[in-house]
Amino acid sequence: MKIFDIMSMCLRNLWRRKVRTLLTVFGVIIGTCSIVVMISLGVGISEQQMSWIGDMGDLTIITVYKDWESDVKIDDELLKQIKEVPDVTAATPFMYVDTWSMLSLQYKDRYLYQGQVMGVDLTALEALGYSAASGRLPTDKDPKNTLVFGSKAAYQFMDTKRKRNNMVDSEPDAYGRVKDPYVNAMHDKLSIDINIDEKHEYGKLDGKSYDKKLNVVCVLAEDESANYQFDKLYTVYMDISYVKELQKAYYKENRMKYTDEGTYDQLYVKASSVDTVDDVEKQLKSMGVQTNSMNSMRDSIKQEMMVIQLILGGIGGVSMLVAALGITNTMVMSIYERTREIGVMKVLGCKLGNIRSIFLWEAGLIGLIGGIAGIVISYGLSAIVNVLLASYGGFYMAGGTRLSIIPLWLVGVGMLFATAVGLVSGFYPANRAVKISALEAIRHE
């Protein structure tokens, strides 16, 4: 028999018993929906976790810190070696600058900067995801006293001549208006004083002038995501070599011995892509340091989410098991009703493989039809779940991530699984049909 003939016969047989067929198909639909919707919830939860991690920081950034069981120092020599590692696009230390006691960043001997200052490799900022809202990002041709301002860092200047309301709020007022800060970082001439401990009082301009011609090249663009690795709002960035120079000047002016060992607490390393993070981390650890990255957290969460998806899929699989039993029962009953027909086919010389194929095709079609219908209904149920949960709030994260997501691979898995369940369920009835004696089948009423 040709495949077309087998297919036509299967469809006719299913249609002759359409009520039983529809009930069996309905069982497969319920099983398919249970599996697909359950796994879609696991996929949605996983997407939410990944979205949350992405908002926390750049997945390609690796933090390098000292391994206390190793004698390796995190210094400029190690930094140079790290920059030569394949797939490393940038590397820089982040050094905190003490603006409370060491130095004063100011304007016109009146406005004093109260925010955070960090020493970094300014040429690495672009690779680390910084962009300029005004001006340009620094290059290696800029002088060492170059500064980069966070988008709201200018609001951290305090008017030392006023005792009250001496800072401008960066947030809109009751009328939605945002006032300009005291200082325009790109145009005003900023300077640095070195504080003398004996007479310095915090919040006062009482230091010794060190640099009156600071070079501010840009104000950073605000980061739209909640990236907690690098502050792009309220921090002023200086070149790290300039920071070390300021430290030496501070120790000298205060008659103290400069004790800098040339080491850093940690470095930030940028990998070329998410796919290369693991390889870069392995190479860095081989240098005798410890590493950490958001990508490592993502991998552990992926494993946890995989377990959750398997559990949810297993719960939905119980319904599919019931559907499989329904298909088996339907096909066994069909054999009892068609025993005489089976005998006639054998007497006419129909091959046993063709007889087996007929019953397997019928069982497979029940699974396939139920799987297709189940997938369609699952999309509707998924949309309903998202709408209902969204109406209660708290179930949509930044970026509009849905709680129930049905990816294309899940559609394929659902349909293949439903068809496979149908074929497996029809295997026993098909073999039973083959084993029926032709003479006994013809005599069967």
Give a brief rundown of this model.
By secondary structure, the chain is of the alpha+beta class. Helices cover 48% and strands 16% of the residues.
Write the layout of secondary structure elements.
Elements: H1 3-16, H2 18-56, E1 61-66, H3 76-83, E2 88-93, E3 95-97, E4 103-107, E5 111-113, E6 116-120, E7 132-135, E8 146-149, E9 157-159, E10 190-194, E11 208-211, E12 215-220, E13 235-239, H4 240-253, E14 266-271, H5 277-285, E15 289-293, H6 294-337, H7 339-347, H8 352-392, H9 408-435, H10 438-443
Parallel strand pairs: 6-13, 8-12
Antiparallel strand pairs: 1-14, 1-15, 2-14, 3-6, 4-5, 4-10, 5-9, 7-12, 8-13, 10-11
Helix pairs in contact: 1-8, 2-6, 2-8, 2-9, 6-9, 8-9
Descriptive key words:
445 residues, alpha+beta, 6-stranded mixed sheet, 5-stranded antiparallel sheet, 15 strands, 48% helix, elongated
Structural notes for this entry:
The protein has about 450 residues and is of the alpha+beta class. The protein has 2 domains: about 5-55 and about 300-445, no CATH class; about 60-270, no CATH class. It is about 50% helix and about 15% strand. The chain has 10 helices and 15 strands. It has helices spanning about 5-15, 20-55, 75-85, 240-255, 275-285, 295-335, 340-345, 350-390, 410-435, 440-445; strands spanning about 60-65, 90-95, 95, 105, 110-115, 115-120, 130-135, 145-150, 155-160, 190-195, 210, 215-220, 235-240, 265-270, 290-295. The strands form 3 sheets. A 6-stranded mixed beta sheet has the order 3-6-13-8-12-7. It has a 5-stranded antiparallel beta sheet with strand order 9-5-4-10-11. Strands 2-14-1-15 form a 4-stranded antiparallel beta sheet. A hairpin with a 3-residue loop joins strand 4 and strand 5 (about 110-115). Helix 2 (about 20-55) runs antiparallel to helix 6 (about 295-335) and helix 6 packs parallel to helix 9 (about 410-435). The longest helix is centred in the C-terminal third of the chain and has 44 residues, at about 295-335. The radius of gyration is 36 Å and the shape is elongated. The two termini are about 25 Å apart. The model is unreliable at about 395-400 (pLDDT under 50).
